């Protein structure tokens, strides 16, 4: 995709000033890695694991769904229970089509008392917004927040960096969110992360994005991180990338994302709330098992197994495909995710992956590959 037809975030010039190598991603011109003495995917990956990495995720879609019927309408298309979600909390969920396929995965929360704040993936946002606009009924209004940028800071030192600007942020736990004045402007902020590390996502007005980006980079603990390290970090964390590991044909059960199905939404009406898109298929797969399931693989020899590589049983029969894969900088070995029939999904199952036509030994292993380090408040 040529540069001239790619969209840009407000921070595009800031990335180029830092010597970023830019690539097309989700229809946007985005930094894959940065130049200089520090730059490079491996260095950026390790910096995020050890310190604090700063990511421009402004290409993602932000919106609010407001009105008296906002929650009930949203729940028609997601399997999470948002009716009981308290102000100051968010949760991961899945935007489902009528067949129970995952149109997108998303974060939705209540940073204030004004409906739901929702973040969707860049490549799907136009379709997601069009779907919601066309299907929300009653007193439920979609407002696209195109006037806001989104910055993420991830890593074990992220909390110290952010608490220096607003001490209350140190008190946040995993999946807490709020609307507050930060860096002198109105922000939505949450504590979660797509890297497996502790961190924050900060939605800021476009006009202030570059100032805030540069302010955070003035801290010696913070370095800019590109899409290359973002991808290797999320792979180690066992997190799926929509359009690769999950798509509109994949159910939450197949995608090993059943944690996103709230218990109250699994029960059939009138006792429960299984009235969301694709509930019949999903409940059937929960009861009887799906035809395939996403698993983690340790590739024990040879080159990395990349997306599209075939997975075979020990007799050489093709049983599935790799959807994401590459070297793990943290583990020092190759890892992958892919789909296999449930009979081959048990931990420790020996399989093969075909890399450039050559079979390599692989084993089904638990995900995440690297332990997630989100901060959860002690229970009181």
Task: Write a concise keyword list for the protein shown above.
six-stranded mixed sheet; alpha+beta; 19 strands; 380 residues
Give the class from helix and strand content and strand pairing.
alpha+beta
End-to-end CA span: 52 Å
**How many beta-strand segments?**
19
How would the global form be characterised?
Answer: globular
Share of helix among residues? 10-25%
Strand order of the biggest β-sheet: 10-11-12-9-3-13
Unreliable sequence segments: none
Mean pLDDT: 96
The helix count comes to 9
Beta-strand content estimate: 25-35%
Largest sheet composition: 6 strands, mixed
Instruction: Provide the gyration radius in Å.
Output: 21 Å
One letter per element, helices H and strands E, the order comes to HEEHEEHEEEHEEHEEEHEHHHEEEEEE
Structure overview:
There is one protein chain. With 380 residues, the chain is an alpha+beta fold. It contains nine helices and 19 strands. The chain has helices at residues 12-17, 41-50, 70-74, 125-135, 158-163, 206-217, 227-236, 263-266, 279-288; strands spanning 21-25, 28-33, 52-56, 61-66, 90-96, 102-109, 116-120, 141-144, 148-154, 177-182, 185-191, 199-205, 222-224, 293-299, 310-312, 318-328, 333-340, 350-355, 358-365. A six-stranded mixed β-sheet has the order 10-11-12-9-3-13. A six-stranded antiparallel β-barrel has the order 14-17-16-15-18-19. A hairpin with a 4-residue loop joins β16 and β17. α2 (41-50) packs across α7. The longest helix has 12 residues, at 206-217.
């Amino acid at each position: 995709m040529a540069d001239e037809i790619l969209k840009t975030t407000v921070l595009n010039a800031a990335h180029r000033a830092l010597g970023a190598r830019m690539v097309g991603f989700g229809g946007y011109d985005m930094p894959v890695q940065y130049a200089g003495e520090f730059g490079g995917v491996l260095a950026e990956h390790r910096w995020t694991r050890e310190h604090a990495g700063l990511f421009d995720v402004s290409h993602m879609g932000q919106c609010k769904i407001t009105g008296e019927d906002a929650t009930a309408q949203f729940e028609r298309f997601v399997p999470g229970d948002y009716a009981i979600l308290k102000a100051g909390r968010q949760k991961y969920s899945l935007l489902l089509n009528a067949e129970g396929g995952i149109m997108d995965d998303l974060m939705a929360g209540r940073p204030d008392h004004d409906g739901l704040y929702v973040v969707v993936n860049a490549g799907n946002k136009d379709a997601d917004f069009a779907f919601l606009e066309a299907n929300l009924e009653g007193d439920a209004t979609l407002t696209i927040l195109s006037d806001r940028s989104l910055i993420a800071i991830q890593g074990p030192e992220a909390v110290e960096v952010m608490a220096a600007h607003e001490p209350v942020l140190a008190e946040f736990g995993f999946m807490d969110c709020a609307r507050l004045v930060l860096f002198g402007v109105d922000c939505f902020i949450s504590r979660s992360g797509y890297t497996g590390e502790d961190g924050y996502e900060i939605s800021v007005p476009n006009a202030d994005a570059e100032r805030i980006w540069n302010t955070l980079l003035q801290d010696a603990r913070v370095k800019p991180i590109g899409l290359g390290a973002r991808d290797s970090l999320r792979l180690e964390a066992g997190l799926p990338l929509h359009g690769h590991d999950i798509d509109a044909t994949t159910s939450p059960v197949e995608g090993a994302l059943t944690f996103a199905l709230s218990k109250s939404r699994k029960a059939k009406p009138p006792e429960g709330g299984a009235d969301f898109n694709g509930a019949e298929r999903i409940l059937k797969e929960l009861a009887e098992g799906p035809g395939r399931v996403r698993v983690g693989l340790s590739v024990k020899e040879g080159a990395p197994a990349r997306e599209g590589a075939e997975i075979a049983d020990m007799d050489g029969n093709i049983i599935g495909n790799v959807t994401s894969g590459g070297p793990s900088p943290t583990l020092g070995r190759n890892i992958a995710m892919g789909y296999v029939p449930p009979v081959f999904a048990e931990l420790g199952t020996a399989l093969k992956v075909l890399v450039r036509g050559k079979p390599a030994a692989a084993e089904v292993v638990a995900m995440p590959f690297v332990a997630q380090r989100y901060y959860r408040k002690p229970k009181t």
